[in-house]
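BACKBONE GEOMETRY TOKENS:
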Amino acid sequence: MNSIASLALSSIVIVAIVLLVGKRFKISSRYERKERVLTPWNSLDKGIDPTDAEGDK
């Protein structure tokens, strides 16, 4: 019974450390990253018509 309690406590500590490190370094999911360069293909995804002149935005 004592080994089960120590195993549970160790796993709780490890999960807490992982969560704190994740929040500290702001690790984002790979699906949440935004494109740094707006290409014509990406602008279509955002509803921007790439054929318009850039001054008309």
